[in-house]
Amino acid sequence: ESVVGVLLERSVDLVVALLGVLRAGGAYLLLDPSYPVERRAWMLADAGAVCVVSGGVLAGGVPGGVPVVEVGGGGVVLDPVVGGVLDPVVVGSGGAAYVLYTSGSSGVPKGVVVSHGGFAGLVAGHRGLLGVGPGCRVAQFASAGFDTFGWEWSMALLTGAALVVVPQEERLGGELAVFLAREGVTHVTLPPGVLALLDEGDVDPGVVVVTAGEECPPEVMARWSRGRVLFNSYGPTETTV
User: Fold this and answer.
1) How far apart (Å, rounded) are the C-alpha atoms in residues 168 and 145?
2) What is the pLDDT of residues 199-214, one digit of tens each?
3) Does some domain include residue 106?
4) CATH code at 150?
5) Among 12, 49, 88, 222, which lies 20 to 30 A Cα-Cα from 1?
6) Which uninterrupted H or E stretch holds 39?
7) How far apart are CA 146 and CA 168, in angstroms?
8) Segment 23-81, tens digit of pLDDT
9) For residue 89, is it within any domain?
10) What is the domain extent for residue 168?
11) What are the backbone dihedrals phi and psi of residue 110, each rounded to the nearest 5 degrees, phi first?
């Protein structure tokens, strides 16, 4: 259950990195590149991270003394695995899957450890309530520092669905609606502020919409709940997203 920091932009590499940490039996700690260097350093120290997976310019922002496993070359050189396959790692349901830092009521970041059992319950809910599974396409919209990121990737990759990363330049308004249609997205989770700027008529009524991240105003709920399936998943991180 070693904690491994992951400092990468939203991308396929980011998802592969966190899956690699879990496959090795570790717990990932996502470090949002937008966070100040001081905050990232504090989080790594507080969580007792053994190393950080990063790459490119971002790798230079890892605090000194913390080993870097660099994506794309450089960094720590790892011993090759014979045959290219890791031996299975068994973890208990109470073992740590990831660590997420919230702002905390005092303004000081507070680390929350989410268990594998919590993740399993979350995915069961995705299947049963949201109807996600093979053939579905789940949008990845949230920034890495938010627990919704874990909600999105697990909804897709742990149910047999596809995860579709929304490009930075297509995350708002009409551009987002065009992206969802072009990529055939079936499930999307968006904060109320984004829903408020998006015309509900531009999103296919068959798309399952989830709102999260902050309290959703009644008028936004009313507008987006007409003629479609809408879920409000706003709640505390401690309950596994």
Assistant:
1) 15
2) 999 999 999 999 988 8
3) no
4) 3.40.50.980
5) 12
6) helix 37-47
7) 16
8) 899 999 999 898 888 889 999 999 999 999 998 889 888 888 889 988 875 544 455 55
9) no
10) 117-239
11) -120, 125
